[in-house]
Amino acid sequence: MIEFRVEDMTCGHCEKTVRAALADALPGAPVTVDLARHRVTVDGDAEKAAVAIAEAGYTAVRVG
Predict the structure, then answer these.
(1) Does the pLDDT at position 31 exceed 90?
(2) CATH at 57
């Protein structure tokens, strides 16, 4: 599992957008979003995930 801090993900719409971007980039990969903590966890290629989040308009910082 790869964890990102996405501070500019602040609402339900943001969460939905990030989930959709990751689903497109990493089909079938499990995604967990903790909106209150601004955290996204995903299985798969970290670089693809980071690029997908960035292309969706958000800033992803890998944690750990």
Answers:
(1) yes
(2) 3.30.70.100
